[in-house]
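hey m, so remember when u said the tokens were messed up on ur end? i reran from scratch. heres the input so u can diff it against urs
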Amino acid sequence: MKQKTIKHGYKVAGCLYNLVNHEVLPGLSIHANDFWNSVAEVLAEFTPRNQQLLVTRANLQSHIDVWHTDTANQPFNQQRYELFLKEIGYLVDEKADFTISTKNVDDEVALVAGPQLVVPLMNARFSLNAANARWGSLYDALYGTDVIGEDNGAQQTKEFNPVRGRRVQAYARRFLDETLPLTRGSHIDAVKYHIVKQKFTVTLFTGEQVQLKNAEQFVGYNGSIAAPSALLCRHNGLHIEIQVDKDNVVGKTDAASVKDIVLESALSTIQDCEDSIAAVDASDKTSVYRNWLGLMKGDLAEIIQKGNKTITRSLNHDRHYLSPKQEKMTLPGRSLQFIRNVGHLMTTDAIVTATDEKVPEGIVDGLITSLISLHDLQGNSKFKNSKQGSIYIVKPKMHGPEEVSFSHDLFSAIERHLGLVQNTIKMGIMDEERRTSANLKECIRAAQTRLAFINTGFLDRTGDEIHTSMHAGAMTQKALMKDEPWITAYEDRNVRIGLQAGLQGKAQIGKGMWAIPDQMAEMVKSKIAHPKSGANCAWVPSPTAATLHVMHYHKVNVQDIQSAMKAEFSLPGTIDDLSELLTIPLLKNQTELSTTAIQKELDNNIQGLLGYVVRWVNQGIGCSKVPDIDNIARMEDRATLRISSQHVCNWLHHGVINESQVLESLRRMAEVVDFQNAGDSSYIAIGTDFNHSIAFTAAVDLIFQGKEQPSGYTEPLLHQKRQEVKAMH
């Protein structure tokens, strides 16, 4: 499709130009020429700054590399190292305390704590599933996972298992006892749920009628007041709907005719343009933007074929109830949508300069996704996303305060050009790069008028940890990285600095992903640590996981945790010591590592690397469940790939392993990965012809060119190889 030339000689890919002119702009009070002139002006203003920030990154990394290889700095001294980082500007001076002034933030961000989904925006079905995950069946989540045990795989069969069903009901009733306690007795003994004199009432098997200990928890109902079909309660700001089926289908309901307990689950979703997708050209980007348009206009739909049935999946409607006083009330049927733009590194051919140079992809993302979001702000959508009239953009992979300032200024320029009030665009800062972690207070300050989200991302953060200190020495084993001092300091400082900067009641403090989607029992056991840490949201891999994880936010009142932590942080003597955060996670027992242990670490990294790369490069799958070396399905994305490739590169650089070992493992693990994907008819094997497999060469390059990749990012090589595959078809 032909390019369209706009102001300053910029050329826009025809597919993107047509999307904007014929699908995005209709219904908005912006003329096409005015918008494209704005695009050109913003690109002309911000591209040089973007490029200079990347130069600064490279210069800082070069200084660090030289410092680690200079014998004058051996043996390593932590204090001298930190002084050096200040001298080169890697660490900036912290200024006076401050409080963010973000306004017009939705309750799902500011006031109510709960799960958050991250989903590839390139996949319409996944995007719809995530948007619709605001409400989830607790019965389904328990029945279909390992939370209540395996029952010899009974939860995987299509035929209903009444024994398992009763275990689900018992578990759910215990959950009700914890969240909606009664004045006497237990929900386990309930034989009827009804409304008496505007009060939530339970008749027990003894015939006694009891109410909620806290009567204000009952907020609404459906059906008639004499025979409600659903009773709605609220706990810790989250809603619980008890559904009653008067037909009382045998085995599917209990003694009280309860057919399900539906939980308000994923309060927010990050629709991802970045880490979880494989968009490498103008056509891909246009598809991504079109899905965002569908979400913002409320008309995104996906046709799914299930056997002989054709199903059209679309966005859920809002949920309507009557209050106990029979006043109408409405609750959102969908999670609040954020969008994650790409970072500062990558460029796109969706728009090129007069001399055919690609422009920064993050700038284009900001312009196009904000334009599309006007449909929500101006009331053109079937469904409202932000009730407060805000646009939520998460910015990943920023290195330090200068890069946050750049994004803030970019958003301000976009607001001016689109006629938006300043700070309409809210920013989410991903604390996933070492320089941002070490300067987090000043990063928050740089976005203090629009900040709505900070988050720890252990995976990318580990990748940057390895690359930043590549020349310092061999890194500890990947599985032991979470035991290193820096990770505890990183997770704790993020919450503390966020609370000290006034994020409570104004913004989200988030924690990272549960990466093993089939092990929900372990997630339910361990992920409660996230709300206990003071984080008011945490990432989950699926709608089912959101419904299970939300139980943690009923067990833990995050607002109370945050208030207690703020009081503790204000005590005299609280200091910010960077020593632990900047402790390099070096391998401590290299001479004691056996040949077998080294080979196991190498094979584990290589298998995970290949298993992800082959799908990304050959099939364009950005994020999926990939079996690890032990055949345990794990969520893999570019962040996990960054760790694996950088870890092998680091061990190779320091002589823990050699080139022949790496190549041998690559070839042997290729056969393992091919075997694991044998059931996928669209899979392209990599172990049959190493010399001509683009995916295999991508894996090789990620390792052997790993030191030279900017910040150890995998995107440049992945995009190049994916483009090569697309060019062949």
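this time it looks ok to me. The two ends are 17 Å apart (CA to CA). if urs says something different then somethings off w ur setup not the seq
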